[in-house]
Amino acid sequence: MAPSAFTSEQLATYLDHIDFPSHLRPASPSPPALDLPLLTLLHTHHLSAVPYENLLLHYSATHTVSIDPQDIYEKIVVAKRGRGGYCLENSIFFNHVLRAIGFDAYHTGARIRLRTGGVPRGNYIGWSHIVNIVTLADGSKYMVDISFGGDGATLPLPLTAGTISKNIGTQELRLVFEPLLGQINPASKSWIYQYRNSVDKPWNSFYAFSEIEWLPADFEPSNFNVSQNPKSFQRHQLLAIKFLRRKDWEFVEGEKWEEGKREGGGIYGKRMMVDGVVKENLGGKTTVLKECATEKNRVEALKEFLGIELTAEEVQGIRGLETELKG
After folding, report:
1. Which helix (H) or strand (E) holds 300?
2. Can you give the three-state secondary structure of 173-228, one letter per residue?
3. CB of 265 within 8 A of CB of 155?
4. What's the DSSP call for residue 5?
5. What are phi and psi of 158, to 5 degrees?
6. 23-55 confidence digits (pLDDT tens)
7. DSSP 8-state class, residue 249
8. Rg of the chain's alpha carbons, rounded to an integer?
9. What is the pLDDT of residues 181-231, one digit of tens each?
């Protein structure tokens, strides 16, 4: 397996950043097994500490996105300003974390479907997302996606067709292995990420991927298309999402806790900024926390509700863009 771009010192600093339990770290006197409970715990701690956000495309001087692992590490960990990144940034970063810990992990590309009326519909738009595939010691495989925004999985999903996993609230997730809508060859199948908001709702297909490994040279054209294509929704909508994690001393009635498997608690909700509106979902109905009319309001709200701090230079970067709040 190729080595991680991160040193053991960088890994330790990152694990501090996400408040990961010290006795479950690789450097602890009795390192834990590289199993599903550890992978799940790492997933939830990362989600609650590192937001999904596309602010570089709006609040920066260049409006470009670097996917160099060290640049991403600097932004997320070293700068200490609550920053995260969009899918390619976070997933590439997390892959190097996984490998630094010792997990067998690689990337693969994903095709997404865009929302119409709040629901993903129509054909897949092409390679605009990436996920990690992790193989555990027993040979079981999991799709690990820590950067699909508010629609993402809050835990690793088994690479077995039809297995249902619980997400936030009543939402359920699964992977199916089927041909894609619109493809010519019906014998060719892909893994498809699906969700339903409750057991009485229909399944919706959101993105699809294969098990073919993507190399670093594959990331660049995808990153350029997502960040610089004038038709990319990322350039026209400002997004920031942070998941909320239950601490290990908190208890939720009716929920089974397993010692060593649920340490650190689970994800129970999320906060989102969509353009100038801050929303919160705690497993049920989404409520509006704040509506921002000016750039000053939005910059303050990013810090208050999502813990994201922007520099004065970054704040100036949105001047003249369509996403600028001019109220």
Report:
1. helix 295-306
2. EEEEEECCCCCCCCCCCEEEEEEECCCCCCCEEEEEECCCCCCHHHHHHHHHHHHH
3. no
4. S
5. -65, 140
6. 999 999 998 999 999 999 999 999 999 999 999
7. T
8. 19
9. 888 998 999 999 999 999 999 999 999 999 999 999 999 999 999 999 999
